[in-house]
Amino acid sequence: MELVSTPLLPEGFKVPASRWTRPSEVLRQKLDSQPYVFGPGIFDPHGAQLIMYHGLDAVYFSGYSFAIGHLGTTDMDLYSSVEIADAARRIVSGLRKFQLTMAVGDPEKGEAPRHLEIPPVLADMDVGYGNVFNVQRTTELYVNAGLAAAHIEDQVMPKRCGHIAGKALVSAEEYIAKLRMMRAVADDLGHPDFVIIARTDGVSATDAPESKRGLELAIERGLRYLDSGVPDLLWCEFPTAERAPTERFHDEIRKRFPEARFAFNYSSSFKWFNEAQPMTFDELSQMGVRFIFITLAAQHAMGQGFSQLLEALKAGQQDGYIELQRQEWAEGDRVPTRSHHLFSGVPYHHQMGEHLHVARFGHDVDEQLEAMKVV
Q1: I need a labelling partner for 87 at 20 to 30 A (CA). Which of 8, 96, 217, 368 fits?
Q2: CATH number listed for the domain at residues 3-295
Q3: Identified catalytic residue from 85, 145, 161, 289
């Protein structure tokens, strides 16, 4: 890893040189060099920073994540392009800031700097939030936000989660026009490497212009989308975790497009633990899948962990929280948020504040707190 200086760090501190590589280029490098790229789903910058800290490949930001995490509602087109684009922008910005804060560590407490690579962020564009000109605006927002990739689906508006009944599809011609608009906007902005993922909900759609339904419709749609020459990855949303439909879709597509690359939603909607032989990431990779993601990974992890804490607090009052802290600190670096000051960058702000000669920052600021008693 090559380390270089940046004006946003005091002298002596450095960041990985890849900080200035376009996220879409980073993603393409990973897609070309790894069996697959994995991105857990998050709903806020904090979750994205945890992915970065633990060194996973990519960050996935879904519409369902945004709906739950920011609006407390479901995934049925209840927000606008500007809202989700701004949330994506804050995630990218948060990762860039986190790289700086980790590069400082905490010299006062002997915490060494960590030099973390910024993972590329892939985001949901739903159906583009309208017609092709809404897609034009949304793509511009996404590219300028620093996203590496976006996926767009072939449902009508208002769309809904791929695992909620009642889905209907626009015509393939209208959808392909949206794909072409995405490519045109990215190219016009000087980002020809922006990754475009085409998604079809054909398998479980109840309404579509074609007479075909189910897997046959999804295969036909997938072939037409790749015929357009636009998508870098093709994603078919499946209604269950069954192996056979997944294998057949990828096999049929690769008969005409042997080099086709796919995305796969290892969906939080499925009870994978009930599958006798759940598909593995390695098996999906052998089918041509290059991007694997778990849509609502962070929501389910937060829901489980926070529910356990709430039950412990309800039963044991303060002891419930004290036990949480014992576990946090016993795990050491495996729980980087155990010190919220370090994770959020208080030492960085003091170091940089002192470097810029700003009052009330730096070594001369004495809070008169005993290091062993505070985080």
Answers
A1: 8
A2: 3.20.20.60
A3: 161
